[in-house]
Amino acid sequence: MQQNHHPYSYFKPKHNLTSLSPDLRISTEREMFRFPVSLGGSCDNTKQSQPSDEQQHRVVMDEVDFFRSAEKRDRVSSDEQNVIADETHRVHVKRENPRVDDHDNRSTDINIGLNLLTANTGSDESMVDDGLSVDMEEKRTKSENAQLKEELKKVSEENQRLKEMLSQTTNDFNSLQMQLVSVMRQQEDHHHLATTESKDKANQRHEAPEIVPRQFIDLGLPSADVTSEERNTVRSGSPPSLLENSNSRQNGKRLLAREESPDTESNGWGSPNKIPKHLHPSSSGNGDGSSNIGANAIDRAAAEATMRKARVSVRARSEAPMLSDGCQWRKYGQKMAKGNPCPRAYYRCTMAVGCPVRKQVQRCAEDRSILITTYEGNHNHPLPPAAMSMASTTTAAASMLLSGSMSSQDSLLNPTNLLARAMLPCSSSMATISASAPFPTITLDLTNSSNGNNPNMNTNNPLMQFVQRPGFNPAVLPQVVGQALYYNQQQSKFSGLQLPAQPLQIPATSSVAESVSAASAAIASDPNFAAALAAAITSIINGSNHQNNNSNNNNVATSNGDNRQ
DNA sequence: CGCTTTTGACCTGCGC
DNA sequence: GCGCAGGTCAAAAGCG
Ligand SMILES: [Zn+2]
Questions:
Q1: Which of A236, A241, A307 lies closest to A271, judged by CA?
Q2: Residue A470 carries which DSSP code?
Q3: Spans of biased composition, class Basic and acidic residues (predicted)?
Q4: Which positions ≥6 away from A253 have C-beta within 8 Å?
Q5: Per-residue pLDDT band at A173 (split at 50, 70, 90)
Q6: What are the start-end ranges of the E strands in A471-530?
Q7: CA-CA distance, A164 to A538, in Å (whole number)?
Q8: Strand C positions with any atom < 7 Å from protein CB?
């Protein structure tokens, strides 16, 4: 937990600024999306330079609006707010002119309008410095201060609430999205199957689709004997909810509560890795017999199962036995893995009763200072902010992997692949795809060593620059990728996995085009993707932003196989 | 006392 | 079918 303070310190700046004025606080939100500015590597410059009102009016991403609108509402609601707003406005207007020069200068330094997004960090000072008509202002300032303080209180609370809401919503949305995607894919598959089948047996059959639901109707009927048997096996400490699920057991022997709570069903991973078994032989499913429900059950089961398989693996140097990622874990097993002297430990999330999330921790065989943490599944409960990074990462990545593996084996069309390549133009060799394996896995390599096979320093990759920071906690990084994945997925997946028809050009990622296929270049240069990266990275950077270069490498590799050390 | 870790047994999928 | 390897279970032990 201690380590997590760091990662999430990016909330702090928000609060600090909050103490200045609501406006400033709001702009902080925007700050989260200022990443494009930093692409030029001029983080420091931008911070030092004073922002202007004009800058703040440039909205980089829509996501910001969520907060902004909320804030605005907040402002309007209070009486004196308007006064404050006016004040700040006036001040800003004043300063605007001088700032413009700065902008021009900077823009020559770096690049285009990206600079417009620069920080407002100095705004407080500016307000102080600017004190023009001192006397008048002072009086006002005093009263304003009082108001501001109150306002600040309110806003802080509101902020807190919003944060909580956001995290929760994000969580929910992630899982919902995951499910939706899976269902969509399933439907596609089913359509495919149905059509082919009906073609084959067109003469004999009336309706092919009927077949599927029927299976589930059968499955839906839990046998009374089984349940009673299973009750015996329930552990003393286990919640009664375990019983509910026991009907999904297939073998009488070990009726362990794998899917521990009813929640799990709706959430992800109700079914263990044996999807096919669940589908065909017996058990499980909703008791109801309507064909629709059955179909849904299939979809869900398959989706969950697939989801389950999707993994996010993080390689990081750490002497600690485990990365602290904000979640509570309970060790449930340990095994000697083949070809590795170090044992592999198995953990499961204990923050909620039925949470299906698991993780494996193992040291790298070649370099024992490298810790390999592999996550599976999605949390079925609200997460503390400290845990959001990992969670969103796994969810998003899992979704990505899902869509990629199911819809096409084509590595080029695999969004995950694309992402990996897009993020790692210099180390595209790392993005190996072996179509042969059961577990689609995305691997984040945060280790120091350049891994030999990656001679190019990744310094020209924007993402690298951000990862290569001293205070950078490996545990946070997943959020970067996670969010990137997340946003990217909305682009690439929901638009039907089709590559953007119109490749757009973004200087920052243009290098991708050289080393990567045209397809991946298209995605990578997609402004939305860039923006997603920006959002994700900026949010991280804002928190643990200390300029320094560490020799950290961030490699993202995807494979359909087990992660080999 | 409640929770976590340890650890041997067990289950499952896969290749031969 | 057999053996192997990965993954999981749960009783027992450990810990605060
Ligand atoms: Zn959880």
A1: A307
A2: T
A3: 186-209
A4: none
A5: low
A6: none
A7: 20
A8: 4-11
Query: How much is the pLDDT for A454?
Result: 40
Q: How many angstroms separate the CA atoms of A503 and A488, rounded? A: 14
User: Which residue is the nearest neighbor of B5, CA to C1'?
Assistant: A331
**Distance from Cα A96 to the centre of ligand 1, integer Å:** 48
User: How many Å apart are CA A21 and CA A496, to the nearest integer?
Assistant: 43
Tokens representing A29 are 């939100």
Q: Judge whether A554 and A462 are in contact, CB under 8 Å.
A: no
Better pLDDT: A42 or A364? A364
R_g of chain A, CA atoms, integer Å: 26
pLDDT at A299: 57
Q: Which protein residue lies nearest to nucleotide C8, measured between its Cα and the C1' atom?
A: A333
What DSSP letter does each residue of A60-96 carry, written as one string? --THHHHHHHHHHHHHHHSSTHHHHHHHHHHHHHHHH
Cα gap A541→A536, rounded to integer Å: 9
**pLDDT over 90 at A332, yes or no:** yes
Give the residue, A61 or A359, on which the prediction is more confident: A359
Nearest-angstrom CA–CA distance, A481 and A395: 11
How far is Cα A304 from Cα A10, in angstroms, rounded to an integer? 33
**Domain A327-367 in CATH: superfamily?**
WRKY domain (2.20.25.80)
Q: Say which range, A197-201, A235-239, A255-259, A294-298, has the weakest mean pLDDT.
A: A235-239
How distant is C1' of C10 from CA of A347, in Å? 15
Run of H or E residues at A362: strand A358-363
Domain-wise residue ranges, chain A: 146-183, 327-367
Measured between alpha carbons, how far is residue A54 from residues A57, A64, A109, A115, A289 in Å?
5, 16, 19, 11, 60
Residue A498: CB atoms within 10 Å? 9
Which secondary-structure segment (H or E) carries A187? helix A134-200
pLDDT digits 0-9 by tens, A396-422 = 666 666 555 433 333 334 444 444 444
Q: Which of A352, A168, A396, A360 is nearest to A264 (CA)?
A: A352
CA of A477 to C1' of B9 (A): 38
Tell me, in Å, how far CA of A262 is from C1' of C7? 23
Cross-strand partners of A27: none
Q: What ipTM was predicted for this assembly?
A: 0.96
Q: How far is the CA of A561 from the C1' of B14 (A)?
A: 14
Handedness of CA A255, A258, A261, A262 (dihedral sign): negative
Average pLDDT over residues A151-157: 77
Which nucleotide has the least CA–C1' distance to A237? Answer: B2
Q: At what angle do helices A518-525 and A415-423 cross, to 10 degrees?
A: 70
